[in-house]
């Protein structure tokens, strides 16, 4: 049995008692608007493409910042490229030196308004999605391979989801189609659907295995063994669960120790290295193995919850959000709003936050390196925090 499963479990009753450090000083901090001409990370979200931005570590030495922007002047009408775009949208990419934030590489890629994302794999390689195409890049920014993400256009609801396994060795492509709901509503029950699933080699984008199932899921996460997916629909299983999906289409829920069927609520499940899982929701957060006792379990303090988790190597970082209930004067209807408060860093064996980084804006982006460094995009600020060993 591995050491990280043998360690004793410390259950924290609320977030503050788990903090090891407060308000750390960044090793460096830059203004992305003044220095690189990018918009603020918390720019107004008027269209879906304004959410297509982020920060990642492509290696411990290099930070990548990306953002989709629309050209101020529309381009002349022309044929669409492989991404499905016609030149009006650009994926702007800045690669920075993790030591001081200086620019290493800058390039732009044509994309569309639908979807753009960049994901690290391993050893400095990374994957870029620009609309309807996937590209694999080397650490030297050479394009190594590509793969189209075609839409069959046989249903009104269709799309692709993409995930990279914790090791960075596998890529999961999930093509989902919803053919029929029991009413004309985006929230009504699904009666007929399909998911085409492909597991790729992250070094070549070549197919390892593929299969099709007669269902769809709202959320997917890739692990190095099996896919993680929320409750398939249509299904008789309780909605809001997360579980493992096998290549034969069978799905089995993975339940954290704090989950109660009597007080069922939705939760998120993420695969971590060493066959561990992280689950968050229902007022709790925990890290646990496939079998055996929890490594770490924590109950949120009132109105606080884990919003996002990022992982690399032996470390993971979580965004802690605070929920506020506001009452609309006109309708007297309560509306819940959340605000990021801080980003906390842990190691896989630990039960105490190694550092806690305060944040200030409504829409933040962050990533963690295999050495425990954290990069945070908050407003116009991009700040790098090095873990002190």
List the helices and strands and how they pair.
Layout: H1 3-6, E1 11-12, E2 28-31, H2 32-36, E3 53-59, E4 62-70, E5 89-97, E6 103-111, E7 116-120, E8 126-130, E9 133-137, E10 143-148, E11 157-164, E12 170-181, E13 190-201, E14 207-213, E15 220-222, E16 227-230, E17 242-245, E18 251-253, E19 267-272, E20 276-281, E21 284-289, E22 296-299, E23 304-312, E24 315-327, E25 334-347, E26 355-358, E27 364-368, E28 374-378, E29 381-385
Parallel strand pairs: 1-22
Antiparallel strand pairs: 2-29, 3-4, 4-5, 5-6, 7-8, 8-9, 9-10, 11-12, 12-13, 13-14, 15-16, 16-17, 17-18, 19-20, 20-21, 21-22, 23-24, 24-25, 25-26, 27-28, 28-29
Please list the strands of the largest sheet in the order they lie side by side: 1-22-21-20-19
- Provide the helix percentage: under 10%
- Derived structural class: mainly beta
Which architecture per CATH? 7 Propeller
What can you see in these coordinates?
Helices cover 2% and strands 49% of the residues. The chain has a 5-stranded mixed sheet with strand order 1-22-21-20-19, with no helix packed on it. Strands 2-29-28-27 form a 4-stranded antiparallel sheet. It has a 4-stranded antiparallel sheet with strand order 3-4-5-6, with no helix packed on it. It has 2 helices and 29 strands. The longest helix has 5 residues. It has one domain: Methylamine Dehydrogenase, Chain H (7 Propeller). The chain is globular, with a radius of gyration of 21 Å. The N terminus is likely disordered. The protein is mainly beta and 389 residues long. It starts with a helix and ends with a strand.
